[in-house]
Amino acid sequence: MTEAILLVGGKGTRLRPLTMNTPKPMVPAAGVPFLTHQLARARAAGVEHIVLATSYLAEVFEPYFGDGSDFGLHLEYVTEEEPLGTGGAIRNVASKLHSAPDEPVLIFNGDILTGLDIEALVTTHRTTGADVSLHLTRVEDPRAFGLVPTDGTGRVTAFLEKPQTPEEIVTDQINAGAYVFNRAVIDSIPAGRPVSVERETFPGLLASGAHLQGMVDSTYWLDLGTPQAFVRGSADLVLGRAPSPAVPGRCGDRLVLDTAEVAADAKLTGGTVIGAGARVEPGARVDGSTVLDGAVIEAGAQVRDSLVGAGARIGARTVLDGAVIGDMARIGADNELRAGARVWCDAEIPASAIRFSSDQ
């Protein structure tokens, strides 16, 4: 049995206003909290025991997931009193682990949607005799990520943080946010202080001669750190482009949850999700978007690549394109919000207050 740690303590600052009332891993993606997809994929790979490293809004997780028995898992929770970074969070949950020093422990970041072959990563770790194994993926523009070059056997040779010049970009392989640690390595991380695995733990292990193995898996991978990425990830789950056994329905153009109401002539496309108790009125068009529980899309509104928060209301004929509307916000009729517009929770925008000319 392989056990796992899920790092779910981040504040999700880049996702605001989605994370004002909800921790990032609990924001719904394809009809269920995003964390549900990660737990389901881990369970499908044979993981039975998972420790959640929580911090921001930590009180939300356990009431929803409980002891994990409904998911075929044994879940435990450890809360950071002060932010400890990725390495510190991993070390902080060590007392809950059951693995022996030479046994592997899976570690996942709580904001990555991936089709990673988890069993293959564990197998690679065991067969190469690595101390730590990293999931690597290839990206076209690696400047926003940490580069991880490897030798011909896949052994990691360096960690290069966010290169900017062409000379610094020596590989397109990046750290994809999933790892296998030998339990002894976890116990060696300093306790009680902030530690970054990317900037301290991994470079330190490499300098000491430890074996760090990279496994390139270029299946679906998306960092859900921005609202636009989160909406895209949810749509990809509904469309079946991103794999998850936790999608509550058949994959296709739309996912309408029980108790939602959709007018017969409303059009839902592109992996759109309509949450429980939400309503989409006649003539509305919703494409590639997430409409959370209890929200209302009034008649003739057009919503594209956007997220509408729980209980929010979008007025008649209003256009949203690449927008994020916070929980319980009210957008009046005949508005246009485009190009990354964000409306905070409980905000109100009167009718016809925001318009874009056709040449903007």
From TrEMBL:
Organism per entry: Streptomyces telluris
UniProt similarity note: Belongs to the transferase hexapeptide repeat family.
Stretches assigned to the Nucleotidyl transferase domain: 4-236
SUPFAM superfamilies to which the protein is assigned, alphabetical: Nucleotide-diphospho-sugar transferases (SSF53448)
Name of the protein described by the UniProt record: NDP-sugar synthase
Record-linked InterPro entries: GMPPB_C, Mannose-1P_guanyltransferase, NTP_transferase_dom, Nucleotide-diphossugar_trans
Superkingdom assignment: Bacteria
Pfam family, one: NTP_transferase
Residue intervals of the Mannose-1-phosphate guanyltransferase C-terminal domain: 253-332
